[in-house]
User: Fold these one by one.
Assistant:
Number 1:
Amino acid sequence: MDRFSPDKGTSGTLLLLLSVFFLFAGWYGYNTQKNKPVDFNTEIRPILNAQCLACHGGVRQAGGFSMLFPEEALEITDSGKPALVPGNPEASELMNRITHHDPEVRMPLESAPLSEEEIDKIRRWIEQGANWDVHWAYSNPKPANLPAVRNKKWPRNGIDYFILERLEKENFTPSAEAECGTLLRRVSLDIIGLPPTPEEVYSFCSDPSDEAYEFHVDHLLESPHFGERWAAMWLDLARYADSKGYEKDPHRSIWRYRDWVINAFNRDLPFDQFTIEQLAGDLLPNPDDQQLIATAFHRNTMTNTEGGTDDEEFRIAAVIDRVNTTWEVWQGTTMACVQCHSHPYDPFRHEEYFQFFAFFNNTKDADRDDEEPLLAEYSDDQLHQLEILAAKIDSLYKLKEGTSVQRVSFTSPENSIVSVDTLILLTEEKMKAIRPVTTPIIRELPESERRTTRFFEGGNWLAQTFEVQPGVPASLPALPDDAPGNRLGVAHWLISPENPLTARVLVNRFWDQIFGRGIVETIEDFGTQGSPPSHPELLDWLALRFMNEYQWSIKSLLKEMVTSATYMQSSAVTQDHLRRDPDNILLSRAPRFRLSAEQVRDQALAVSGLLSSRLFGPSVMPPQPDGIWRNPYSNMAWITSEGEDRYRRGIYTYLRRTAPYPAMLTFDGTSREVCVSRRVRTNTPLQALVLLNDPVYVEAAIALAKRMHSRGGDDLDTQLKEGYILALARTPGHEELAELKKFYHAVLNEFHQSPDEAGLFLENVESPDLYLASLAMTASVILNLDSFVMKE
């Protein structure tokens, strides 16, 4: 017998030992799982939100109890028992209901029962004391040391350590650095919203060192076009428009607020001051005109000028919009539902909505046609004209008083003789005709006229009940005792270091703009139904750095982001990326996404040489299809701008809420009737049709062709390469160049057969340049490339 062959006794002993081992292992595993602490935020709250709060939350309290607040969950329910008895699952009505066998009793009612795993989590949570942890967003950011990483050569700044730690944990390797032209185009589009010039590309690519890159970044941050790019983002939040909204949607002159935002970004106004001036600039000591214009942030609310409407109803609607917008912009919180009931999922009570409403309920503005209160301002040219006219009047009075002559003779076609008094009157009329630009602003009511704020039952302004005082939700830090109970107090509360949300929310907004996805993807919702942060330690690290090291400097924050190795990666995608991280949440490569509506248009005008670099001023009306503004209730007309105004940046395009500029809408622009934190990016055939046929893009293609010819001479290859450098900051590959040449020659052949077609395209039927027309059609192809409308 083989000495290693077990006999029956040995075999039986082995089986017994194995059985004991697995029994012990199972018992040990069960007890380990049983004793493992249950995390309320990640394991219990998702179950409550998905299965319980619809019936037992802020909207409804079926059975006489709610699971929204811990104190409510501990109360006696309609059954006479408490829903939760910490430490005692058997005495908790919640456990009884979710495990009951009778479908008429078992919860959730008329839904599938909870899984065994979910029931076990709830049981263990109750056994462990039913701890009700604060949602991560409502606790203060936690300081964090830079994580340890294996690849110590890759990080360029602190951001990279947090990104790399997660990549290494998931066995990812960062992507290589992007090519120099692609990187420069990326950072230029991100910081100023415009592509680099060929000269800038050549300069950087001849010295793509860290110092050269930082030099270009600093240069972009100091560009006057920085403010235009970032104001476009902010104006979505501010719901800025050139009209009042609702059915008639008449004109509103509020463009000086838009200019204030551009200027604030350009001078890197610290975000805490940026906040204070917009929410309460009028309440500052001796506010200047610019601080008053800043308060127009909350005059962007809509005004209903239709006859027969109740002015108080729509004044209240405007205040409600101000409350909701303030919460979304600064706190990343969906507060609109709390107007009618407590929040379904987050710790905000119905009454607290109207306590916050009280801060905004005592401003002078109302739902009136005249838009009062207004700030009147004369332009420099107007002031100069007024000075000239005033001097003329002064001289006429002196003439009248110093001589006995009462009539003045002067040469005119009729050799008229006019009295001095008439001349004075005519000059005064000229002065009156010079009207200042007016801007709606916020002003507080005097103490004697202050309104009493009451609770709206169910959000109904006609069902106002008990009086409420200004206040903030109890789930967040309280207002300081010495804080004024007005908008200035709210502004200081929002930017207080004790407020856990503001810095996180703002850092996340800028991260979303740069990387295409926020660290918290739902940038408008940091609540329990929002997305959890992909890199929570990084979010807190940046939030604290934004407040402390950067002193709320947006330019410093952006520089940190765009000089990181994370940002400088190539956006090339591998099969491994698509398989394991298709949405690029880990940032193992640079993001690639379509430019905004404004940037698509601005870029086409920039590369063609048509774009006006002029800043500020009234909104303009570039070409759009006829009839879009036709409205039986309005005589407003779209008068196409001429000259330089035809080619201003998109941020200056007139925005009428009921009929926004159609080319912008096609690329997901908004009507700005309400605050918009996040534009949805779409990809539709209509976008290609706009790029091919819209007059702006046709003119851009023709102008680009002329630039390609002037820069490339008569050699087609050189012309096409210049087009690529202008549009994409790189030269075309061999296959790309071959396809463009093939297209050019095909079009040229067609134009030779039908020269009138070339004439129509160039709007020169008499003597069309067939070669220019063919090159312009090829330039149009370049402007339609996926790479052109994308940030790569």
Note: Confidence is low (pLDDT under 50) at residues 1-6, 409-417.
Number 2:
Amino acid sequence: MSLPGGLRRIRHRLQRALRGKRAWVWSGGLLLGLALFPHLAPAYHVSLGLALLADVALASAWALFSGPTGYLSMAAAAFYGAGAYATAVLGARLVWPLPILAGAAVGGLLALPVGLLALRLRGPYFAVLTFGLSELVRHLVVWYESRVTGTIGRILLAQPDRRTLYYGLLAIAVLTVAAALLLRRSRWGLALVAIGGDEERAEVLGVRPTWIKIGVFVLSALLMGATGAAIAPRWAYLDSQIAFNPLISFQAIIMALLGGTGRVAGPVVGALFLGLVSELFLVQFRYIYLMVLGAVLILTVLGLPHGITGWHLEERTGDLFRRVRWAIARRIPRRFAMQRDYQLFIDGEWQDAPGGRTFPDVNPATGEVFARIAAADVETARRAVEVAGRAKTEWGGLPPAARAGVILKAAEIWERRQGDLAQSMITETGAVAGKAGFEAGYCLELIRQAASLPYQVSGEVAPSNVSGKVNFFMRKPVGVVSVISPWNFPFILTLRAVAPALALGNAVVLKPSEETPIVGGLLVAEVFEEAGLPPGVLNVVTCPRAEVEAVGDVMVAHPAVGVVSFTGSTATGQKLAEKAGRHLKRIVLELGGKSPLIVLQDADLDLAVSAAAFGAFFHQGQICMAVTRILVEAPLADSLASQLVEKVRGLKMGDPRDPHTAIGPITSPAQLAKIQAHVEDAVAKGAKLLVGGRSHAQYFEPTVLTAVTPAMRCYHEETFGPVVALIPVKDAEEAIRLANDTTYGLSAGIITGDPDRGMALAERIQAGMVHVNDSPVHDEPHAPFGGIKGSGLGRHGGKAAIEVFTEQRWVSLQTERRHYPFDR
């Protein structure tokens, strides 16, 4: 959506104002502020008790030196803080206008006793009592949010986007007028308005305020809460501040201005800047401060989605600032963050696991437990399959237009939530921003393609050798589909099975990976629930690693299940295939790979280097199609090696939310240990490291090995990490032989200046997919995706989905009396 001309001009002026030396002054001042005022950092509030004591002490000191006017100012602060805070915590997950307004109402009601008390009390202990009550109100709101709004959130859950923000601001404007009318005609309303921070009005209680003062009072109070509600969901680091800082909305505005909606710098420098400003100016210039920041919020979200620092601050302060900022960010007390609890989705309802059991969901980039996930057991999985078995008939009997309509509605919702879905992926999987954005966007294409499948199911009318008989060969839904999806591309590898299966009239039971239960399953359920999918047609069962095998057994062996779709390791796929065979179940498997990239002597070297780097290191090599072996003809080997090493050294490793980051964290500690073991084994057996080879916390450097031999684990086994072996070959024949020297057969790539030769060689590679003059890492929604040998059975994608998720039936019609041998 393009910006109005006025907003564009404002944005450009802000950018110009921070160019050159001013950016250095800005960043230097912020760093100096950190050194001089460390207590202003978010880590200052280390516990509820310390926060309460600090606020009470500050209030007491202010009251002793300010007299009655100071008491009234403290009461006004309690009203503002509680009202804004309630709105922020309620709106942090519920960002439609209704929850925002509901949050404001709750905060106002909770703060009302504090305001009324301010009209009665005069004395030295007034400030202590008032702020003690305000802290109690804030902590009550925290409890209320953690205990109650989870249920509301499952009904009204939505992530903020521009359209929502527009509606929210419109609703705030309407409420402002309504509240102003109410306050102007209400005795208690006038009293509350009169105790604001304006010293002149505070001296004359009961005097009718002007319309302007009423409007400013109400609008500023609402902006405080609404800004927190609109911005909070965009910030993982902001969550830890919700529980401790009544100025959350100010933080949100400053963070958005400085850091945009996806950077670490914002929360850190924003908190410092906020602390300085609020300490110096908040009490004396409350209304001006609020109105200016309210305007800044609107301009920031609409006109500066990446923040000022997105253009200039980080670029001009270089790596030093990024390192300092990251060091600070790692010390923010995330252990105090409010975690969200996620439930199972069965029969159209969000349900707790038996006994309320949960398991942790960890952000791989930080090691932070950011959510608790319902832990299903065997009986829960069995119930989910039975629910799907009951729902399949009605859903499968709907006409194609009805099913396609629900799938298209899901695509519309997915498009609206696409940005926030990508952010969720970054948090849960450690995917870099580019990968998360690509995957969320690709899934939109995938869902839309699935919506076309109901119209692509066709049958045949065939002749018969029996007189008067007509044969019909038709396809029907299989009934219940079990989908077991992996963690590396959780959106794509879940939806490529779920969306076609639903579109073709089946009910689905989905078990996402225990590493990615939210993006691999629960968010998918949210989208389809909002799209109007009938209850029971999609069921999501999440479980910890200890329950995976038992739950998987149910999803394969249950009599109601018709097809099993599994994506994961070859070892697990073999076990599932054995179980499916025992129960005579159809199964489609997309398993591991050991993809080669063949680079012939006539290849475009730049293309070869780019294809190799992308294929080997995209998503840290955690892709079944990832390039693990570069088979390059010897005359080109040295040149390719030097350019590849240079390119790899330029890949930035770090915060996955930074759009410039190319290498993010490894998803799990177990996977990191496996990668490290493969590299150490290769080096110990004579391989040479051209670049990389080291781990840093949960990160592993992109690594290029040479002198790799069949005796090394990384030659035969799937590493599933950012490690590639560069192997010189004497000619194309040797390249083909080595390419096929593996138990896998998923994907391959050939880089050559002769397309005809490339196509001829592609015929000889033992793989389900071969891409000439492209990386092996490639997929399209309508293409038949899958491998041979140890890489799987069957295909996903396009018309192949019809083969997988429907079964062919033969129905015949005898149009005239048939004579049987037993007839006389």
Note: The longest strand covers residues 469-477.
Number 3:
Amino acid sequence: MRLSECLGRRNALIVNGWINVFGALLEYFSKAMASPELLIFGRLVLGAVMGLSTGLVPMYLMEITPTKYRGAAGTLHMVAVAFSDWFSLFIGLPEILGNTQSWPLAFAFPGIPALLLCCILPFCPESPKFTLFTRGDASKAVLDLKRFVDDNEAEYMFEALEREAIMINEGPGTYKQIFTERSLRVPLLISIMVMITQQFTGCSAVFAYSTDMFLNAGIRGQMARFSTLAVGIAYFLFALTAPFLIERAGRRILLIFQLSMCSLSLTLLSFFMWLQNFGGHVWAGYATIGALIFYMCVYGIGCAVPWLITGELFPTKYRASAITVAVSVAWSLSFVVSTCYLPFQQLVGNSLSYIPFIIVSGCGAVFVYWVLPETRGKQAMDIVREIRQRARSLTSGQSPMRIQPIKDTRSCDETTPLLSTLIKWLNQTYSSRGELKTEAELNMVWSMIVSCVAIGAIFGALSTKPLSERLGRRNGLIFNGIFNVIGALLEYLAKPLSSPEILVIGRIILGVNMGLTSGLVPMYLMEITPTKYRGSAGTCHMVAVAFSDWFSMLLALPEVFGGDETWPIAFGFPGIPAFLLCCILPFCPESPKFSLLIKQDRVATLNDIGRLVDVHEGQQMYEDLTREKTNSDTNENISVSYLFTSKELRMPLIICVWVMVAQQFTGAAAIFAYSTNMFLNAGLEPQIARFSTLGISIIYFLFACSSVHLIERKGRRALSLFQLSTVTASLTAMSIFTWAQAYYNINLASYGAIAALLAYMCGYGIGSPIPWMIASEIFPTKYRSSAVTIAISVAWSLVFIISLAYLPFKQWVGVSASYLPFIIVSAISTCFVYFLLPETRNKHTNEIAQDIQFRSDTIRRYSLNILPSVGSSMGISPSNEASEDMRQHLIPRTKSFNSPSTPPYKYSSFAFTPPGETSENFLTKFWGQKR
């Protein structure tokens, strides 16, 4: 957009037009010169033209138009884009220019309107805003205005421009100002968010699959292509209505309507495609077409709004820079979505591939409703003023929906006395140094003290692989214990030395310790344990975490070590068990898997096994390790990046990462943080409320203890499903009860919230250990440390993000609505675990790998619609060689990463099954219902 500031809006468009002509010529001559490189270069040039056009055209049109017609003018650009979309489909037909001989004409056609534009634009006036604000030529600005409107309108528009000029400094704004000036932060956030929601409405995905929808409905070849063209025309016609609707309904209403209806139509589209693929319903194919047409209509109505929002939200001084940022985000996301959609579609299937678009469109509609002001008929300064007012109201806990937190006049001393104690100490420490800190600054220091643990944990998690493979599992834990002792000592000495900085350093070191612990401990415990007890051993880590949670609450009570003088003991206490661990671990055996598979020391392996189990069990364990060593090349140096690039490891890695995401989005931190307030709202005294929160933590610990016994009886998958479904239901109930209590003053609702809290703690405790042990079970030894490193890093990164984002989010939307993200992610994760996570109980990594591959292939094959029964019911001939070749190309033939080969699957008329199983037996186990 620097081009628009140097040359002006009109002249920049002329330059852009000539670049368009140049790119079109390159594309045209690529066939004659037999040069694909020339075609690629021409496409890059045309891409630059498109990027410039999306910024320059709306800016120019809106700056030369009176305020009352500004919206209609701003939509003309996207109307032209909609026209070009269907016209490109038209000339791309084989009957027009899409054949072997004439395709260069189709590629070069955009150069014709660009050439006409270059001939017409020199006779058009420059933008009056550019002439006045950037060039400083008032007389030329008046002349430009009079070429557009009559004298009275020109005088009114010039007065408005002068008022705007008084309120801003001369000269264009810089990119640095866009990001650093506080008054521009919210407008920039709005501009970027509406661009994100526009790109995530899924238009590219729907267009790409539209022809297949007509084919699946029984419409053949040529007619399917013409039907797609007709849908493109419908999109264009509804885009034509935008210039008329945008000045009547307004930008905000149109955008909310578009996003909410896109979310609804994509939901219907996904549902009907699922019915068509899995149920074989013929009518679902026609319903899919109806949902497709509905989507195109609603998308066309609001497609122009995001591209003109930035031009209206920012004053002229900052407009070019802001549009540059917003348009860059839009095209970057367009590239990301177009690159990632096809692999994602192949992974989850057509019907499920729209879920991200559904979620983002729905959330985008809510965001626009809360944050975006109506800009119709308003000057830039009026819009900026309204944005500031809305931002102040939102940050103070209010919103247009009046979703407010529960009013609570209780002090921080009643709910979190340790926080008050620390704030008091920080205030005294800085005062003794002669530094006076405001309450906001003290809260910021406290936030840093809290969040730096998660930062340290991220680094600790990333260090899991090198530490565990160089020092070993046991020695890595000893080294990690020393870290814990050092961090605890620093925290203990922070008060005597009057140094908050030492407290922060100690917290960071303890964070590194926590990150290493969460990776090393489950890995070590599961590698020294026989297969039949592996699950119980893997849960011990989270049982210890649950114990430390309630024990730390006990120590932090004012009656124990949470007082003004004794709080350093509470902070330094973790060093005591860590010191004992460092004394005990040297007498414990090393992991036999590490000794054999990484150190290649058979003698040490036999000694380690002999110290762990009896002779018979030891022989079985050694044979299993030898078999695993034979099936894996442990001489390879497996890097973390290999897990992302290896095709056969992709699905196991996705499972590991997703179960960690699901665990962090169960909202445990938010529930623990607000539990005391729930008891206070139920009428309990502050001290009793704190002890009640302690009791809730003990319940969580007791149910976590029960997982040690349940995990080998019920299995990992069943426990994880129970946890996620229980958490989803209890969070939903908690949200409803807190909402009823806040807005209708229903006293019984507070007791309902406590009951939901109890149900949450029970369900969360039972399944809390599962995610931390999954990576150690589904990956062979040579990949294990890398997989654990990735999973733990994701977990602690999410802990850091959620801990920073939850409190502002809660203040913005209120307590009851703040649980919604956790509810949504937990519900989606329940479905994910049900379909993709295999049962790992008493299975070796080779069996688990085959099960994962089988599940992912099964879902992929269903989603690619290769079932013969469905195909025959829709009248699609299975003998179509082209489509069959495409299906064979899209369905990967992967091998298990732990065995030289994987037995081929058998095919039936319903699905394919693993060797030795019938379709009926498999479906009974896999889908939970008989055929």
Note: Residues 394-415, 864-931 have pLDDT under 50 and may be disordered.
Number 4:
Amino acid sequence: MVGKTSKTLALPLLFSLGLLTACGGHETRSSSDDTTPAPAKVAAPHTQALVRNQHAHLEQDYAAMRASQISNVHYALSFELDKTSPNFEGSANIEFELAEGNKSDITVDFNGGEVKRLSLDGKDIKWDYNKWFITIPAAEVSAGKHILRIGYSRPYSTDGDGLHRYQDSETGRVYLYSNFEPYNANKMYPHFDQPNIKARYDLVVTAPTEWQVISATRESSVSEQEGIKIWRFPTTAPISSYIFPLHAGPYHVWEDTYESEDITIPLRLFAREELAQYVVLDDWFTPTKQSFGFFNDYFELPYPFGKYDQIIVPDFNAGAMENLAAVTFTERFVSRGKKVEAQRARLANVIAHEMAHMWFGDLVTMDWWNGLWLNESFATYMANLELAQASEFDSAWGTFYSRTKQWAYRTDEQVTTHPIELPVHTTADAFTNFDGITYGKGASVLKQLPYYLGEENFRKGVANYLKAHSYGNTELEDFIGALSQAAGKDLTEWTQQWLYEAGVNTLRTEFTCEGEQLKSITLIQTSPQDMDLPTLRSQRTQLGLYTVSEGQEAQQIAAIPVLYKGESTQVELTSNLACPDLIYPNLDDWAYVKVALDNTSSETLKQHILQFDDNNLRIMLWQSLWDGVHEHNISLDEFIAFANSKLTQEDSVRITNQVVSQLIHANNYYWVLDKTGKTYAQQRAKITDFLWQSIAQQAPGSDVQKTYFDAWTSVASGKQHLNHMRNLITGKKSIEGLELDQDRRWNIIVNLNAYAFSDYLTLTKKEIHRDASDRGKLKALAANAARPGNSNKSKWFDQIIGIDGRYKLAEITEVMENLFPANQTELLQQYSDKLIQALPDLARAKDERFLARYSKALLPTTCTEASIAQLEKAIEKYSNLNPVLNKQLRISKQEDERCVAIGKQL
């Protein structure tokens, strides 16, 4: 799965800089059709009865018992779907084998439905249902093989999990899709919902005649009768429940084929009819084919699941999800204007990420959710490797550094940091671990291993692992063991340092020269000073040594690989070198470590950054400056002055994207600091003026022009700039080469509403009439929520905390993320007590998905000592309320403390 990206405009996010048929059956299989599961780890049977706790989550201890209790599972599922009902009907025939000596009741996970009938082996038995799971007393079931038959109904979901129902408000068409990770498959059908009880699936679906129905296999038959079609799907390979897919609706479909000497894979792409005109097929099918070519060779194992479908769906909670052979993608990957290269590269990365999961996650699956990090980290690493080696986006590792790795560093510096490998006691805890460590840090440390083990040894270890455990479940030692065996190296120490110890270290150089000659280099490693994380690690890095002359390109005089460890490492110099002007201690980004430049290198950076022609190095040098703001080495004012003087001379769009994003965050810092006794309108004006002037300096229609324009739209304030916006939206003004597409028009409308500028209400009504799509309706909600005024905020606050269900999660999320834009910090402060006091009721009434979005968007971080104290009190009061809320409260307090410290530098 790929997580949802965060917005940059909403104030509470400002501290977190940024991480898509034909009837008639046919089945294409790979050259190997053996789906026999790898030998399972057989758990010792439980001799004592284990009683399941009564709540909505699954606990690891109970899941481990159930994995020893239940085996050889086969589901025969049937669904009746229609266009009008808020509920769907289903039946589940569950074949399973019960272990000898069982003393525990059997539970079947099923959340929020109605059980209409239940029988075991054709006989009525005793059972109970608490709306979370069905319980069958142990005395009712003997050891051996059984068939459990359950008839049920359930409401469709409207929060993006389970079987989600979406109705387009303009056309009335209904679309369905499933989304299950980590523990939501039980919101669609009764079963044993845990990754280590793999099962085979048979599926029959009754649906309206005009609908497509998509699952893990291509349909074997479709028959029609009296206005409906009955779709039958052949038996799947053994798979985990969270990746079983069911998507249905009048989706538009495009077809293509991946072909090589070894395999032919039919490809399909689906999207809502309402969005189909905006789908650029080459952006989807080309990276899909490139990824198949790369992974089939790299893994030495042809794609094992026959066909490959990708479905672009609305209201999606994440970026994408690796459902088996039927991957779902958010509609945010479809733009209503021409995409810039960075957007195309991002989509290609996500396509590769989800495809990597077909082998690593779907074919071979973690035993329990503590293995989530390896699942996601490996897919993240492999996606970037594929892009760098097999696509047009060969700068993927630079983007990995500026997006994924920075996300990892930020998460690892938070008070909520945790080891990569850690216990996950319940499925609720699993949800909280979808973070920068799970994705970014894990991928970063995996990126080290090819340097340490050798690229071919690493690749061979991965291939051996996948072959040995196909269709099975694994634990960490299985993966590490395969790598260790392939390379002939013991990874015990590496595993302990990197996977079981939290935190990120910092690396700096100390060097001495005699005259013009370099005499010595010492690497100094430190651990975080304000956190109890003393571990000093060992890893390979590469030192880049440079000299700079005025008006000339910087010269790299050496690249020195080093294995460093402990507090201090003396670097061996094997040749005479000139005294460098700059040493970068992580050249090519081998190591997972924060870089602190020495004083000489820092001064060289400030004077000569544009003379370094290596884009990847330059992006790291720019990042060092922004890190200096957070570490209080340079002030926000200094960073703005430096960026405004240098950025328009920068020739890398990727670097421009990064620095412009930092300018947006700087602008938001100035807004939140405005009420601390000083005013920072002048600093904000410098940013806004710079971005506006930079638009005209770029080539018309270029990606960099769009980058500056989108940033300006995010930060524009003051009468002059708001007038520019109004004139653009009304057609009185235009910018040469810039297409003001519908999505950009809405960005302007939302900003005009946030300032209640001019005739913003009239402009909004006209835009709603112009764009009657559901995406337009979401943006209209954002614009409404962004309007200032207590009465407006009170209205939306009541809707957010209410339980009337008027708004879907996707809609209320749009409201929450726009309720207090950066210029409305005073309003946020007025609501701070209400926002925190609502937490207990929300924890009781809402699920983790809602709580995560509420807490990220609306916890009051207002950059004052008072708000820090308020958050500290909330942490103490609500420490046991919910793991999602507890985590975000602690992060918010830390962010507020950082903001106060940044303000003191001004």
Note: Residues 505-591+593-622 form a domain with the Immunoglobulin-like fold (CATH 2.60.40).
